[in-house]
Each structure stands twice: as C-alpha cells, then as structure tokens.
Amino acid sequence: MLDILRLGDFDWETLHHDQGNASDLPVIFREFFSASSDEGAARAVGSLAERVCYAGEEVVEATAPAVRVMWRIAGVEDFEWRHFAIQFVDAVAAVDGLFYRRLEGDKIIDSCRKAIEDGLHIPWSLINDSNVNLRGSSIEILGDAAPSDAIVPFLLKILREESDPILRADASAALVSSLIRSEREGEAEEARKFAERFLLEGDSLVRLKVARLLAATCPSWIIESDLDSIINSAYREVVETGLYRSEYA
C-alpha cells in the first residue's frame, strides 16, 4: 500500500529542509501512513511540520514535495488519519506569502502554492463528509487557500444550517480567513464585520478559533492586545465544556 505514496517521484537526497538533508522525509511519511494510533500519526505529522514548515513561518525546498505526498495520503479513503494530512497542508497554506499577502516570483513559495492548489479537489470532495474531522479540516484548508468567491457561499450555508459547534467554529474561522485573503473590493470590510460578530458570540469555540486566526494573520484593523484576553478566556471555556482538541493547545 505504501506504493500509493510514490515517494520515488522526488529526489529527496538533493532536497533540503530546516534541519538539513531531506532524505529523512520518506521515513516520516511511512511512519505516518502506517500509524496505529492518534498519537503516532500526530507525532509523525509534527516531525514533518518541524522540518518543512518550521513554526508555521517559512517554507523550504522540500515543502512542496511534502505537500504533494500528503495530498496523496489524504486521498486514500480507508486511511484513518486523512484529516491530519489535510491539517498539515493547511499549516503550510497559512505561511505568510502563500495565500496571505501573496508573494509572486519566489521559486519556493510559487512551487508550494501550486502544490497546494493542485490538491484542493480533495477537500472540496469532503466538504459535506459525515466524518467531522475530515469535514472540519477540509473547511479550514478551503478557507485558507480556495478562491474566496468559490468557498464563501459554502461557508455561509454551513453557518446557516450547521448545529455542530466544532464545524461552526471551523466555518467561522474559514470565512474570516477567506475574506481577509480576498483582494475584491469591500471584502476586507466584510472580514472585519464578521470577525467582530464572531468575537462577541457566546460560543467559546468560535471565539477561540477566530481570535487565533486574527492573531496569526494580523489584519490592519485588529487590535492585537484585545486578542490575548479573548484567546485566554475562550480557551478556558473550551476546556471546561469538553470541546477541547489537541490543536487548541
């Protein structure tokens, strides 16, 4: 089954990541794809992210090939931890310059953006999936990387119809993310209005996810000092209500 990953498509020996030569990445991919527990799968994805998307702040030579392999894993229907693969791609998409404050003409950034865009058909196919983890991770990556005119109507529909608090929080953050990224006239103001509304909501999970998004993207209209108190109070409430997930740590 490991043949599905087609690791031989890339010359890992000649690629580099944050910790050196990328020849160690195939081992990490195999560990992830053969994981037998949430902890093992998360540990492998964390190791990968440390190397090719360090601290969510930069991409490197090996990042685009890693994204393509993780899309292949995300496309394997019977793999239990597909959502971790999608979350990894989303972490790459959130790096400044790819989809936020787009930079053009940088070879590494351009290759990473192309690798992400080439796999977006996978989360599009999962946006209505019955698995909450798959659906939520798909909502998030599409909010961060899909064209806003394509994804915003879906996100608004989810917010109108969905009752699951986790999916509502995912969709709320994805909506603000998509509007922040958009260069269409008036959408920055729409992003501000939705963000203000979500931060005042009683739903602690919505407040936590939207506040963390704003802290990461730093739009010009946000007051960062206000976000710290919102994040801290919302985090405590999320833990108390039993909706805590490891990604909120």
Radius of gyration using CA atoms only: 18 Å
Q: Assess the beta-strand content as a share of residues.
A: under 5%
Shape: globular
Care to count the β-strands?
A: 2
One letter per element, helices H and strands E, the order comes to EEHHHHHHHHHHHH
User: Which structural category do the helix and sheet elements fall into?
Assistant: mainly alpha
The portion of residues assigned to helices is 55-70%
Tell me the strand order in the biggest sheet. 1-2
The helix tally amounts to: 12
Average pLDDT score = 89
**Unreliable segments (pLDDT under 50, ≥5 consecutive)?**
none
The biggest sheet, with number of strands, parallel, antiparallel or mixed sense and barrel status, is: 2 strands, antiparallel
Multimeric organization: single chain
C-alpha termini separation: 33 Å
What do you see in this structure?
With 249 residues, the chain is mostly helical. The protein has helices at residues 25-33, 38-52, 63-74, 82-93, 107-118, 121-126, 132-145, 148-161, 165-181, 187-199, 204-217, 224-241, and strands spanning 16-17, 20-21. The protein has a two-stranded antiparallel sheet. Helix 7 (132-145) packs antiparallel against helix 8, helix 8 runs antiparallel to helix 9 and helix 9 (165-181) packs parallel to helix 11. The longest helix has 18 residues, at 224-241. It starts with 15 loop residues before the first strand and ends in an 8-residue tail after the last helix. The mean pLDDT is 89.
